[in-house]
Amino acid sequence: MATSPTTVMDQLLTGLHLPDGLDAFAGVIRESLAQVTNSASWTRYGRQSLEWLIGMNPVDRLFMLSALTLLLMLLLGRLRSAGVLAVLLYGAQFAALLSTDTLFGAPLAAEVRITVADQSLHWSYDALSWFFAMLTIGAGFVTAWYAAGSWMRRYREAGRSARAFHVALALNCFGMLLLIGSADLLSLFLGWELVSWASFLLMALVGGLGAQAALKYLAYAISGAMLILGAIALLYSVGGSFEYDAVVAAIRGMTDAQVWTLLLLLGGGFAVKLALLPFHLWQAAAYAEAPGAGSVFLGAISARMGLFGIIVFIVGMIGVSRLMTLEIPYTFMSSRELIAWIAALTIIVPTYTALQQHDARYLLAWHGIGQGGYMLLGLMVGDAVGSAGGLLHCFNYAITQAALLMAVFAVVHRTGTADLNQLGGLVTRMPLTFLVLLFGIISLAGLPPMAGFVSKWMVYRSLITEGMPLLFVTAVVGTLGTILSVYKLIHNIFLGQLRVEHQEVAEAPLSMLIPMLGLSALIFLAGFIPGPALSWVAQVQGQLGLPVVPWVLGGIVDPRGGLDMIWLVGILMAGFGVGALVFYGFGGRSRRVHQLDNYAGGHFLTADVHYQYSDNFYAGLMHLIGPWYRGAFRWLERSLAATLDLVSFGAEGLYRLAQPTLLMLAAAVAMLAWVL
Amino acid sequence: MDWLSAVNLDGLAAVDFRWLGLVLELILMPLIAFVVGLGLVLMLRKIAARLQRRVGPPLSQPLWDIIKLHAKETQTSHGLIHEIGIVMAIGGYVAAVTLLPVPGMNGLAQQGGLIALLYMTMIPSLGLALGVGQCANPNGSIGISRALTAMLAYDVPLVIVIFGVAFHFGSLNLVHMIAAQQAGGIASWGIVQMPLLALAGLFALQGMLGKQPFEIYVAPAEIATGPMVEMGGKFLGGLFVMQCFQLYTAGVLYVTLFLGGGEHWLTFLFKVFVVTAIPMTIAMVFPRYRTEDMVRLFWKWPTMIGLLGIAFVMN
Fold first, then answer.
1. What are the residue boundaries of the structural domains of chain A, listed by start?
2. What is the DSSP-derived secondary structure letter of residue A342?
3. pLDDT band at A497, cuts 50/70/90?
4. What is the DSSP letter of A507?
5. Which of A173, B93, B265, B283 could form a disulfide with B211 if both were Cys (CB 3.0 to 4.6 A apart)?
6. What is the pLDDT of residue A365?
7. Which residues of A touch B150 (CB under 8 A)?
């Protein structure tokens, strides 16, 4: 006998005892399901649910749509049209976010709340939440579009579950939206765990190396979550409440030792997600080995959740000025300098690790870790321009990294490899993908006229005006390393000699190209006219109590040296015009020749001889700095794991009481030692 | 511009003509840079000739070289990016020189300071690197790999110098720096106030211009002139134009940071030619370093001198 879905759902929902907030929610679902099955008129149902959605609290509506996306992907994820549906749903989420008007308007609390054991979990959106939610939903939107067509067909053909992918992506978005809307410590922890597990799901989808990396991530994430739990326990024991207002008051009354403990616990926990040194080892493999579109999403936004935590607690609640008063004993450093140096090392070490990679995905993933350092560094400088630069870099980096990873995975889609020693010359076959990658690398390296230049310029400028020479030099050395590394990336994929097996490669499919080109246009526009993005950042600064950046449409106004990108980009374009005039306007016509019509020291080139320089691209530099790569962090990680292994082995022995006499002896010795 | 304000525009008083002045500046500045750059190239070749006991080329030789290269019948292109690379190499410098104030003209120096200038001058390098990459010749790619490594080497002391100078003047704005130096006379020039940074800057200049002993990336006998291996005709002509701009930018930047900028054109050009002559003379006397030796050298001596200089500036 077949049971109708409504009754099953009904039984499920009435059987469960739900807290207050969810009861109403369940009632709504029950009602709508009843309407779907009973009413013949779909239009009426559609109109009613639309009216219901419009009448809702805007933040609830956002959560509702995000949960609906998850539900629909769970139900319909198998369908071929699920990809298009997902794009539409993420678009609807974006519209819902805009309708909350929490960026320029007042903060808005959600009506949904869950009460557990007298503690209420609730959510609220403000300018900071809006900013990060915009990045999250934007990343979800472009990722879903990228995955909607040809990419997903290939994914299915490989025997993988489309539904699992869609659900994982929707769950990530949902978890992040809950996390960045959290208004108390419990909802924060709930969101944090949801995000951690959701990103594990996305990483582990294809198995193999990805699953291994995901397991390693999980070990890190659980340790990080324990630290955060410890911090929550500390805050509760001091303040007696999970509410943020009480937490702020509690921190104000804390002793320096307590704040240090809190800083280490929170900082450690969030640093794992952001992959700050020395907790950075998990990220590159976990992000690079995820399925293409998933990697785009993870690379663009996922790690920023760690930064969000740092912004809320360390920048917002503890405050940079408090950090400056916390001296490290026996040194000249304050805790703020310590964090700034951790950020600076997070720029340098991963960037130069990226320089050594010969897999395009890993190269970009390592750079992703390094770019996180710039954001934290800017925030730690803490002045108006620096903190705005750090926040703006979240946006600029997200669009840049998404475009870059999309371009690389488009190459993988067409050629089947991301190995930088197996590619070359693809610019003639995939010119638009080349253009996307070019825009992306200029932005990632922080050169004008692209978006990345603006935010990095702001970080540099604040380091100069605040008088931090060594951090400034470190930040610039990181940028120089990025330039070297991204040139290798574009050279080894798109320039040089086209291989015989790639002669027939086609341009990336349209479904992948459209989001790629859209992001490239955005990268250019955000560099040309940084004003709109700066206005968002200024709102976030105002809400966090930071000094607000003096922005205009073209950049920054400041008597000590401002920046006007409209003029700079304008003159650069004019310069290119002059260059084109000089080159194309005068002299003889150039004649295109075949790539084998080339200087080879008197030899004749043939198609079967590979005439390309790609492996060990910076041989001279590596000759010098190669021995500096000691793998010290890997050694640290391995020794930690080995110690843990040993302890668990010992504990297992004790547990089984394999040697009761030995245990007695050990206990006796310990007792004696204590007594004496 | 001074002379423009002298023109009587009574009948057009309602129209704001300041933007017209700016547009004129933006046209004139690259032109002047190009002409001065041609002069600097000529000086470079004259110095080399004199040290080798030759007479050297006549006055207009650099210009004729460019015309000759453009007029060649055989113009071999390896694809669109090869051509775009040259366009970017010239265009980036045309834009960059408008950020450098010269006597009577500030151009866009108020809209982008020292850091914007530094990064703007990387655009031509990027364009060149892309163009060379498209040529599909490993000699060229090796040359670019070496050139970028060289950049990593000399930029470390260079950014230390930039930090020190910006901190000293309390601004990233080049117009402010010049004003501060000219108001206080020679005693307030960067070279007097920050001699160690000026020395480190001179080192960096040598590397920036890619002159001996730091010209491993062209190494004609080893990698067939590296980046230039597939460049002929107007492709090489474009690089020639780029070199004119590059010499000008480096010379003017040094004069702006350390030698008080330009009060008027005569002293300004004199300073620029003297500063640029130093690396050229050194270049003719020294043999060539390998890239790793270059990195080692730059990360050691000029970096140490620069950091010491910053320590003095910040105290």
1. 5-55, 334-569, 635-675
2. H
3. confident
4. P
5. B283
6. 94
7. none
DSSP string, B152-196: HHHHHHHHHHHHHHHHHHT-S-HHHHHHHHHHH-GGGSHHHH-HH
CB contact under 8 A, A427 and B141: no
Q: Which residues of B touch A574 (CB under 8 A)?
A: 26, 94-95
Give the pLDDT confidence score for residue A350 in this predicted structure.
92
For B74-97, what is the mean pLDDT? Answer: 90
Sign of CA pseudo-dihedral A587, A588, A594, A599:
negative
Q: Which of B77, B89, B138 sits opposite A592 (nearest CB)?
A: B77
A599 backbone φψ class: left, alpha, beta (φ>0; ψ -120 to 50): beta
Residues A397-409 have a mean pLDDT of 95
Is it the case that residue A53 has pLDDT exceeding 80? no
Is the pLDDT confidence value at A3 over 50? no
Residue type, B257: L
Residue contact A587–B75, C-beta within 8 A: yes
Distance of CA A62 to the CA centre of its chain: 21
- Average pLDDT for chain B: 85
Contacts (Cβ under 8 Å, ≥6 apart) of A670: none
Query: What is the rounded distance in angstroms from the CA atom of residue B304 to the CA atom of residue B157?
Result: 8
Q: Angle formed by the axes of helices B233-258 and A565-585, to 10°?
A: 150
Which run of H or E residues covers position A119? strand A119-125
**CB of A326 closer than 8 Å to CB of A356:** no
CA dihedral of A25, A26, A31, A32, whole degrees rounded to 10: 70
Q: What is the pLDDT of residues A236-257, one digit of tens each?
A: 988 888 888 888 888 888 888 8
Coil, helix or strand at residue B289 = coil
Q: Give CA–CA dist A249/A242, Å, rounded.
A: 12
pLDDT of residue A20: 53
Close Cβ partners of B18 (under 8 Å, ≥ 6 residues apart): none
C-alpha angle A578-A581-A582 in degrees, rounded to nearest 5: 90
What letter does residue A291 receive in the DSSP assignment?
-
Name the CA dihedral angle for A372, A397, A434, B208, rounded to a multiple of 10 degrees: -70
Instruction: Tell me which chain A residues have a C-beta less than 8 angstroms from the C-beta of B63.
Output: none
Which residues from A are below 8 Å from B72, CB to CB?
587-588
Q: Which residue do the tokens 């067409």 mark?
A: A414
Flag whether pLDDT at A93 surpasses 80: yes
Q: Which two tokens stand for residue A549?
A: 């950046």
Contact across the interface for B237 and A587, Cβ inside 8 Å: yes
Q: Can you give the pLDDT at residue A72?
A: 92
Is A373's pLDDT higher than 60?
yes
Record the pTM: 0.87
Binding-face residues of A in 497-516 toward B, CB within 8 A: 497-498
Q: How far apart are CA A68 and CA A29, in angstroms?
A: 11
Predicted confidence at residue B269, as pLDDT, reads 92
CA distance A465 to B114: 13
A with B: how many residue pairs have Cβ under 8 Å apart?
A: 259
**B162, B241 Cβ separation under 8 angstroms:** no
Q: How confident is the model over A368-397, as a mean pLDDT?
A: 93
Map residue A438 onto helix, strand or coil.
helix
Check: complex ipTM more than 0.90? no
Q: Tell me whether A476 touches chain B (CB under 8 Å).
A: yes
pLDDT band at B224 (very low <50, low <70, confident <90, very high): low
User: What is the C-alpha to C-alpha distance for residues B266 and B261, in angstroms, rounded to an integer?
Assistant: 12
